[in-house]
């Protein structure tokens, strides 16, 4: 099992949680981004820098994803593709996407896009809260623990 991060938009505090978890568990962690960024110098933590462009990082994650891998993203279409390929998707806010919940998320995204196209400002997402960080860390820990249990580790 590998952990993939849609890293360009991932908050630094979430990356730090992921770095600590990867360092503790030695699970492979790959940040995929259009730009260079600082990561810990550990052999199981990698940065995959891709060319600039719309969905280039997302497409690379989907291309390399294996069944059972975990992807950290707030990108709803990417999360849907991850689920279709048998992966798991978790938002930096601690929301685990499922095949049931992703449909509603996609519809809401399309609705907000149509409002923005009509000139209505829908605003951005609210700031990441301590509750979001806690939910993320909690789900990540449960996911890793279950993976290790299922694989006799």
* Low-pLDDT segments: none
Named at the architecture level, the CATH assignment is: 3-Layer(aba) Sandwich
Total individual domains = 1
Q: Using DSSP, what is the number of strands?
A: 6
Describe the main β-sheet briefly.
Answer: 6 strands, mixed
Look at the structure and give the CATH class. Alpha Beta
Structural category is alpha/beta
Helix content: 40-55%
Strand-residue proportion: 5-15%
Spatial strand order of the main sheet: 3-2-1-4-5-6
End-to-end separation in angstroms reads 12 Å
Do you know the CATH topology?
Rossmann fold
Instruction: Estimate the mean pLDDT confidence.
Output: 89
Q: Element order, helices and strands?
A: EHEEHEHEEHH
What is the radius of gyration computed over CA atoms, rounded to a whole number of angstroms? 16 Å
Q: Shape from CA axes? A: globular
Number of helices: 5
InterPro entries: UPF0178
Protein name: UPF0178 protein DO021_03070
Family: Belongs to the UPF0178 family.
Organism: Desulfobacter hydrogenophilus
């Amino acid at each position: 099992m590998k952990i993939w991060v849609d890293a360009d938009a991932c908050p630094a505090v979430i990356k730090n949680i992921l770095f600590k978890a990867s360092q503790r568990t030695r699970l492979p962690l790959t940040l995929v981004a259009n730009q260079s960024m600082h990561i810990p110098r550990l052999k199981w933590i990698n940065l995959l820098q891709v060319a600039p462009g719309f969905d280039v990082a997302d497409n690379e994650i989907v291309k390399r994803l294996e069944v059972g891998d975990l992807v950290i993203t707030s990108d709803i279409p990417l999360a849907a593709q991850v689920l279709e390929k048998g992966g798991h998707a978790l938002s930096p806010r601690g929301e685990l996407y499922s095949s049931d919940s992703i449909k509603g998320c996609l519809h809401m995204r399309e609705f907000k896009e149509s409002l923005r196209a009509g000139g209505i400002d829908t605003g951005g997402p609210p700031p990441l809260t301590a509750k979001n960080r806690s939910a993320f860390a909690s789900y990540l820990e449960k996911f890793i623990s279950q993976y290790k249990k299922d694989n006799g580790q």
